[in-house]
Structure formats: C-alpha cells, structure tokens
Amino acid sequence: MTTTSARPVRRDLEVSVAGRVLRYREWGATDAPAVLLLHGLVGNSHEWDTVAGALARTRRVVVLDQRGHGASDWAASYTADDLVGDVTDLVAALGLDGFDLVGHSMGGIVALLYTDRSARPRRLAMLDIGPESLEDQEAREGFLAMLQAAATTDFSGPDEAAAAWLAGDPFAREAEVGRWARHALRPRADGRWAWRYDARRVGDFLTRRPPSGTLWAAVGRIAVPTLVIRGEHSPMLDSATAAAMATRLRHGHLTEIADAAHDLGVQQPEAVARVLDSFLRPSPAPARSPGRR
Question: Could you tell me which residues come within 8 angstroms of residue 196 by beta carbon, excluding any fewer than 6 positions away?
C-alpha cells in the first residue's frame, strides 16, 4: 500500500453519466485502497476537506459533489434511488472495486442503500443518520420551508452565509463552514451571491424519502463491517436508535463524537477522521502457525 507523510495531492475531476456531469475530488495516491465520501443535503464535497486530507495519507479518497450540489449538474429528480444510481455510475466509471463507503446524513442513506444492493463496499460508515431520521414531520417541514426560502435568498458574499450558519451552531468551526460556504454559493451578474445547490428541487429527497421500514430492512441485510457515528448532541439520530442500528447490523459498531451535533464534518472533523481511520484500516493478517506455509 502506498503511504506518504507529505500533504496529499488533490485533483478536481469530473465524469459524465446519463448526460449529466458529476464533479468529484480525489486525494492521495491512485494505487492506494479507495474510500468514497458522500455529503449530506445542501452540502458539498469541500466540507470533507479536513477528513479527506487526513484519510488520504494512506488512501485514495474520492469525494463526490452529489447531483444538484456543489459543482455537479442539477437534475429533474433527487430521490434516494436517483442518488444511489449516481454512485453506481461513478463507481463503474472509475473502476472502483472493493472500496470503503462513508456517508453523512443524506449521503448516509445513499451509502446504506447502495451497500445493500451491491457487493462492492468492504466497509460502510454512516454519520449521524438512521432509518427514523426522516420521519419527524415537524423537522421535515421545517427543512422544506428553509429550502423554499433558500431558492430566493441571496448574500453579499460567502462570509455572510457562513456567519448565518455560525450564529446558529455553537459547535461549528469557522474555517470549515467558510470553506463549505465558498463552494455552496455562486456569484450573480448583479454582484450578489445565490445558493449553488438546486434549492427548488433537492427537497425531493425528503418528500419522496425511503420508508423507515425499507431502511431498517437494509440495515438488517448489511453483511460488511459497519460503523454508526453519532454526534453527542444530535437532533437527527437519538442514542437509542443508534444503538439499535449497531445491534441489528451483522457486524455493527457504534461511536459517539463529543461536542458535536449533526454536522460532524464542520464541527469535529479531526475526531471524525481519527474514528474513520481506525475503523477503515485493514484487519491484520492472522499469524501463521509454526511450520505453516
């Protein structure tokens, strides 16, 4: 396996699938074991930068801007099945095989369903999401209202958008949120900045969400080692559900990140990187018996 102590090289790349351009970023050596990272709703690949940089010291890290987010093309539909299809197409286009898969929030649901339908992932990690997370009607309607407002919201620049997030999130890091904001907005001709993600339609993922029963069934079928990561103060994944997931998974593990809520990548990225690095390491080969060949 290729390892390096130098700063991992990052490459900004794209692939065309089904007439759409999906942009993604690669870190690390191309011949190293691969891990694919998926962001959450209204996120983008840049919120993984600290985590990706740490993992890339010994891995090829692929970080996708999912459809309608970041620099990737918008689409007519954003269901979980649509997003799983994009992962399938990306994996085929890059020739990935036997890779690890990590998803946060929306990306965690996509990672769960992809793993359930594919034999490719070696390990799965789901960050702060579970089968019940999308079932709270009040929270869901609140997020949909936020998206509706976001479709016509503009800013003086990324700093204003980042400040709005930081004002409501006591755990978020200024540098991490600032990086996300710079790539979540696009400049307009009038000098104002608008959201880059498809605010009018990405709510599809919530309104046409997979039923919780479907997701629990997928949890029960996952055969690969799976890590459930929960933020200590998460409003999205309660401790009882996280524990139930780890129990129902055939090879389930659970860890909680202190001083974090839901957006772990911008709240405690170093802790997330340490936990993932430990979980994703290959198991040591069993010791040989004396005289065994």
Answer: 44, 69, 70, 71, 183, 184, 185, 186
What is the pLDDT confidence band of residue 289, given thresholds at 50, 70 and 90?
very low
Long-range CB contacts (within 8 A, 24+) of 216-219: 216/131, 216/248, 218/112, 218/113, 218/115, 218/116, 219/112, 219/131, 219/245, 219/248, 219/249
The CATH number that applies at residue 93 is: 3.40.50.1820
Taking the model in full, what pTM does it have? 0.93
Q: Phi first, then psi: what are they for 175, rounded to 5°? A: -65, -40
Is residue 107 assigned to a domain? yes
Whether the CB-CB separation of 116 and 49 falls below 8 Å is answered with no
Alpha-carbon torsion 158, 163, 166, 172, what sign?
positive
Range of the domain at 92: 10-134+211-280
pLDDT at 6: 54
pLDDT for the residue 40: 98
